[in-house]
Design brief:
The chain folds into 3 domains: 2-165, no CATH class; 182-246, Roll (SH3 type barrels), CATH 2.30.30.60; 250-333, Alpha-Beta Plaits, CATH 3.30.70. Helix content is 60%, strand content 18%. The chain is built from 10 helices and 12 strands. The longest helix is centred in the first third of the chain and has 36 residues, at 85-120.
Length: 353
């Protein structure tokens, strides 16, 4: 032991190095015991519960907290040594960099899982998770920027000047990228207000299709023709969007024209005939039917009914059944559909021919 006291390395005796090594070993043993505790007890406990939050916390402890504890152990051991202020500062900064990295990873992982946990409680959660990726990128970027500012501040720099410079630069960037920022804010509107979601069938002006992807700047729509239509988020939030996915039932208005030669009794019977046909077809609800007016070449009837299913294919199938049944009923009753015709009256020698 006396010889260790005489042996000096980097300003520290052998006893000092032995004490630092012992401190490091003890700290690492404590961390290893904590890690074993995680594996043997906490993991088994979390596996028995239905909640996924405890599984997340245990996994996060193992992936981030345990490495952070190892690094802190090195810092504790180094602090027992007599080292120069310069070396001490370098080692401290290195530990600070690594510790900040792991702390930021913990924060971003927690935020991500909280967002996903909130989304999973809602309907169509898989599509909403895809939509939330853009939001999470922005949140993570903000967290990491704040972490970098924290590091800069601990390096001894005045971050007030830096923040002021970033503010001025931010104004310049905002003026130069108004369209991009407009799409970004529109993305937040779409995410929180949810006028449409992935999988919804929408019509915007003359464009129609199914939402495939909602990004930070653009939204992608798969049109009926098969091509992908890419629209800016600002365009969608500033337009009138018809969302057919959220339609509970479809209102249908159609007209029928019969010839002027149709008998009065047959005219009176037409609304009842069509009503009976609509009421007989499943998933249809009759609303009204009326003799609506005198056309140029037809006596017009207007009918309104509801399809009790939002699916477009169901609507087309039911409409086909309805129209075929009306044609068959009119044939049976001898009622003729009107078509464009003209009658010419010629007057000769005081007589109408």
């Amino acid at each position: 032991m006396d010889e260790l006291g005489k042996w000096v390395l980097l300003g520290n005796t052998g006893k000092d190095w032995l004490w630092a090594a012992g401190t490091l070993i003890l700290c690492w043993l404590a961390v290893m015991m904590f890690k074993r505790f995680l594996k043997s007890y906490l993991k088994k406990w979390s596996a028995k519960t239905e909640s996924k939050l405890d599984d997340l916390l245990v996994g996060m402890l193992e992936r981030t907290v345990v490495p952070l504890l190892y690094i802190c152990s090195v810092g504790i051991a180094i602090h027992t040594l007599n080292i120069t202020p310069g070396v001490h500062r370098v080692i401290g900064l290195a530990i600070l960099f690594v510790a900040t990295y792991f702390v930021l990873r913990i924060i971003t992982t927690l935020v991500q899982q909280l967002v996903y946990a909130f989304i999973k409680r809602q309907e169509n959660s898989d599509a909403k998770e895809k939509q939330a990726k853009g939001l999470l990128i922005i949140i993570k970027a903000v967290i990491w920027i704040m972490g970098l500012l924290f590091l800069v501040n601990n390096l001894g720099y005045n971050i007030t000047t830096l923040i002021t410079g970033l503010g001025i630069g931010g104004i310049a960037i905002a003026l130069a990228a108004q369209a991009i920022l407009g799409d970004l804010f529109s993305y937040f509107v779409i995410f929180f207000d949810r006028p449409f979601e992935i999988g919804d069938f929408i019509i915007v002006e003359s464009n129609m299709g199914t939402i495939e992807y909602i990004g930070v700047k653009t939204t992608r729509i798969r049109t009926l023709g098969g091509e992908q239509l890419i629209c800016s988020n600002t365009y969608l939030t500033n337009s009138q969007v018809h969302n057919y996915k959220r339609m509970e039932e479809r209102r249908v208005v159609f007209k029928i024209g019969v010839t002027y030669r149709t008998a009065t009794e047959s005219l009176k019977q037409i609304p009842k005939t069509v009503k009976d046909i609509i009421s007989f077809i499943p998933k249809l609800r009759y609303e009204r039917g009326n003799f609506s007016g005198f056309g140029d070449f037809s006596l017009d009837f207007e009918f309104v009914y509801f399809v009790l299913d939002p699916d477009y294919n169901v609507f087309m199938d039911k409409q086909e059944l309805l129209y075929l049944a009306i044609v068959q009923a009119f044939e049976d009753e001898g009622i003729e559909f009107a078509y464009p015709t003209q009658t010419l009256f010629v007057e000769r020698a005081g007589h109408m021919a």
